[in-house]
Every structure is written in structure tokens, then in C-alpha cells.
Amino acid sequence: MEAVAEGLWGLADYAEKKGEIGKAVKCLEAICQSHASFLPIVEVKTRLRISTLLLKHSHNVNQAKSHLERSQLLLKQIPSCFDLKFRTFSLLSQCYHLVGAIPPQKQTLLKALDLTASLPPEVSVRLWACNFNSQLANALIIEGDYNSAISALESGFVSASQLCYPELQMFFATSVLHVHLMQWYDDNSVQSALRRCDDLWESLGPDRREQGLGLLFYNELLHIFYQLRVCDYKNANQHVDKLDAVMKADSHKMREAQRLTNELNALNQSLSRPDLPNRERSLLSSKQAQIQDRLSSMNNTNWSTEQPLEPAYFGNTKRPWQDKLVLAPPPIDGEWLPKSAVYALVDLMVVIFGRPRGLFKECAKRIQSGMRAIQVELAKLGITDGVREVDLQHSAIWMAGVYLMLLMQFLENKVAVELTRSEFVEAQEALVQMKEWFIRFPTILQACESIIEMLRGQYAHSVGCYSEAAFHYIEAAKLTGSKSMQAMCQVYAAVSYICIGDAESSSQALDLIGPIYRMKDSFVGVREQASVLFAYGLLLMRQDEYEEARARLAKGLQIAHNSMGNLQLIAQYLTILGHLALALHDTVQAREILRSSLTLAKKLYDIPTQIWVLSVLTGLYKGLGEIGNEMENEEYRKKKLDDLQTKLADAHSSIHHIELIDKVRIEVQQFHELDIKRAMESQSMRVNFDIPESVGLSTPMPASSSSRLLDLDNLDNRRRGKRKI
């Protein structure tokens, strides 16, 4: 009977190579369904093969799980066959993971680890221990047990150290860092994890680092996420530039590999001709060997010649190794995200760090290329026009979540860029796209609801609808569990209330600013501190507390300049400080500060801030009797004001304007929410980017209402409702 089994296995292999997966499965099922008696080990191998095919090429997870559970029962009768037992444990764990059955997954993995602990510490046993600890950590993260997850990863790190396998050590070290970034317990733990990654990466040497492309991207991106969190933008830029260069080099290499592959295919076709002359055949064969050598050297990585034991992506046909960014060797076959998603993430990082510096041309190019790549991947998952989350295959949900979250990040930054440039209609269009994606995929994109509300507030504030802006900011704060996001939205709302200009609104602003100001030092990083100092300084200026306002604003400006590099925020700080200097009759400093602010505002194409600065400069020149400068300045201000009024009129007349500023939240219909949440949670280590929201403070006021804030000599409520923190 073994000969029969081997014959059917051979037929199954042949069918799979031809892409006839159904025939391959039927060949294998013939063994399992046969009335003839096969050895248990034959049936186990067959069921493992069936489950692997089902997981690679179909969405039939439950049937694969049934085959694996039957294999596990059969293996209990066999005292040895440890490799088969390990493979069964691993695949069964991943099936439980995919269907969201976390308790049986943990139980399976703990049994597997017990088995590895009972065996002699051979290389293969320790590698399997690494596999099981990695999967166990992911399961524990889903349950929110971060400490136990770190313990499992540390156990994997110990196994990798015993194997003297630095790449595998690096895999576990970066995974530990990732968990620390997801659940930030304390600064020391995060920094310790970061230092260990740095030391291990340095110890690999340049050649091994170059071969470990997946680890390079994973490690560098985690460093960028850390530096975003602590607002270390200057050092983060170095990592972004490095990743961008590596990405471009790898893309060039892949294009060259594809060209050589096409050339090799053409040569193979020519060599297949029976009438080819010997001399020509010899030349073509020599050229064929050269191309094969070149392709072989291009695909040379530490693990490229080894075949993984199970698929990295369930329900998706396995991709070639050169299209993957592998983190660890078999039997782990680790991959954080597909290469296309990682490359889109690099583009996103370029945008996030380029936008505050006013590099809008490069940002637009990266947003366009990133969104185009994501749309291609979404189409592969069946997400085209009209498809909603209820239509998705269960096994496609988590991958869809990766790309949809990336898409929303790109759109968020597009909104921010267009609002900075006062291109309100373009900002509307991007924001409406975000809203439509959220309505179609409300569970997958649930975390984006607060971002959308915040951006609705940004838009409303930019077009002068301050009351509506404050409403959306407050709603955004209610929708998020992030302390940082809540603080930023409350600061935004406070600025909108200040711009309304009456005593009640100023009181509401103070009520929002006060608690954040008192806890400003408790946040990780300085973004919240810089923002609340801006809002508080603005409020103090409205209350005629000029010296105190200047002290707060000077401190905030120093933080924004040294740590954040956000030119728009710096320009707004400078404008208010210049205004205060003028109010305190320090005309020399006022002129210098305001010119710097105007230079930055021009670089950013920030028309409202330009108008605001020009209004203050006009007052300065008038007070100094510089009639020529005053007339020239006022003429330029009126030109910019006309430009802004035209853009505002276009925005207000758009069909999307009312729906975006309307004081109502987005209404959505939820579809099989629990299933989708479970599928999303099952990939928590891959989906959780932990990228802070990327929109900075809005321009404090459009020019149409700037006189309410700028005319310090005619404030109606100067002494009314005056309160301090």
C-alpha cells in the first residue's frame, strides 16, 4: 500500500505544479478515504499535505483544522516522529489562530513546548521551540497579556542564543521591542529593548545585515515608530532616509531580476528548438548559464535556499522568496508585513516627516505612489468598487485591514497637506474618501473614526466654522482611547473656542486647556506640551496677560524648534510672539520675528498665516511711519486675502461642505462585527503600526476672522471672565 500512497503523492505534486489544486487535494483525500488500511504515518503525512494545500490556496480553514486534529490523534499512537508532531502542532496552532480560537491555540502551543523541553536539545528541536514561542507570544498579545508575551519571546531569544544564531536572536529582540512599543510600560524598558536591538544589529556585520533585508526594514521601522513617539524627529529622519535608499535599491534589483528572468525564458524557448545549430546552441547555453548565475547571486540570502514548512499567509497563494521580506528562518518563516505593505509604509514615513517641513511636492508623489500600490493589493483581495466588509472572505480580513489602514494614513496626510496649502476643495475630496471607506469597512477601520472626526474639525476650523470645529474635536476625543490623541483633540477644540472670541468660549477653552497643561509633563514626547503651551499662550494673549503669554509661547517655540521640526507650528508661534512684541512696543524684535514667520509661511504655501503676519506687519509699519513699506505690505496682503476668499468660496459652495462640518457623527451599519474583530485581533503584531496621528495644530484663524484676535486695542471682552490655570 505504501507504493499506492507514493503514487498518489506524486500525482498530487504534479497537479499542484500545474496549479490544479482541487485535483491535488482529491488525490490526497483518496488515501484518507480509502477502505484499505494505510500505516498511521502515511495518513498523517497525507493529512498534513492536504491541510497545507488548503491553507495556501483556499479559505477552507475548518477543513484543514479537522485534518490536523485527526493527525494529532494518530500521532499519539506513535512514540517518535517528532518532526511530524511539531509540524502538526504548528499548523494546528495557526488554524486556531485564524479562526480566533485563542484558548485551544495556547493549549496546543504549551503542549508543543512541553514536548520540546522533554527532548535532547538538538538544533531542530530548538528551532521548533523558537517557532512555538513566537506563536504563543502573538496569542498572548491578543488576550492583552503583554508581560507573558514578552516572557515567551525572551524564551525564544534564549533558544536562539543557545543556537548561536544572531539573526534569530535579532528576530526575537525586535519582536520584544515591538511589544514594548505597543504597550509602553516605562521608558527604561523600551530604551533597554532598543539598545539590545542596536547591539545585535551591529554585531551581525555589514554582509549579514545586507542579506537580512526583512530584519533591516523591521528594525528600522520600529526605531522610527519609537522616535515618532518621543518626538525625536531629527534622528528619525536619518532612519527614514536610510530605508528609502534601501527600498529604492531593492526595487531596482527586482526590476533587473525580472528583466533577466524574461531574457532567460526567451533563451530557454530558443534552446528548446530541435533544429538549432550546435554552434548557436553552445553560445546560447553559455549565455543561459551566465544569466542563471546572476539570478542566483541576486537571490542569495541566508534562508533563500531553504523551503519553509508552512505558509506565511493563509488564503493567499504563496509568493516567491524574492517578493518577501523574511524575518526568520524556517520553521518560523516569519514575515511582519508583505513587501508591498512595507514599501508603502516607507513612503508613508517619507510623507509624515516631509509634510511638516513643507516638502509638499515629494509628499504628493509618495502619497500617489503609495495609494496606487495599495489599490493594486486591495484589488487582489477582491476589494473593488462597491465591496463592503460583509463581502470579504474571513481569511482576507486581516490582510485587508493592513492595506486599508495604510490607505487611511495616506489620505489623512493628504488632507493635512491640502489644508496647510489652503486647497480646501482637494482636502474635502480626500476627507470624503476617508469617510466612504469607513462606511464600507466600519469594523476594520473602527480606529479611524476618531481620526476622521478630528480631520472634520481641522477642515471646519480652516474654513472659519469654529463652533463646528470644536464639536468635531470633542467628538474625536470621545472616540479614542489614546491619552495623547484625546489631549491633542482637546487642545484643537480650545483653539477653535478661542477663535470664536466671546467670554463663554474663552471659558470653555480654559476648561479644556487646564487639565492638559497640568499633566503636560506626563506624556511620552513633547508634542502635547508644545501644543498646549501654544493654546495657553494664545488664551493669555486674549486676556491681555502679555508677559506671561510671551513666556509660555517662548518655551513652546523652543520645544517645537528643537524637537518637532513642524514649520507650520513654528510659524504660528513666531506670528503670535511677533504680535506680542509689537503690543509690548518692542518693534525691532517684532519686525525680525514677523519676517521669519512670513518666510516660513510662504515656504508652506500657508495663506492664512501669511495674511495674519502681513496684517501685523502693516500695523508695525504704520506705527513706525514707514508709509512705503505699509502700502507695499498692504497691497500684498489684499492680494493674498482675495486668493483666500476665492478658495473659501469654492469650499463653501461644494456639495461636500455641509456634510463635513455638520454637527453629527458618521452613521454606519455594522456587519458580523465579532467575526471581523476576531480576524483583525488575530494579527495584532502585524496590523498595529502604532503611528501617531500626523496632523499638527490648525492655523489659529482664517483671515476672514483674524481681526477678532489681532486687534488688541479693540477687544470687547478684555477683562471679562479672566481666569488662570
UniProtKB/TrEMBL annotation:
The keyword Hydrolase does not apply. It comes from the Eukaryota. One of its GO terms (biological process) is chromosome segregation. Keywords: Cell cycle, Cell division, Chromosome partition, Mitosis, Nucleus. It is found in: Nucleus. Belongs to the SCC4/mau-2 family. This is Sister chromatid cohesion protein SCC4.
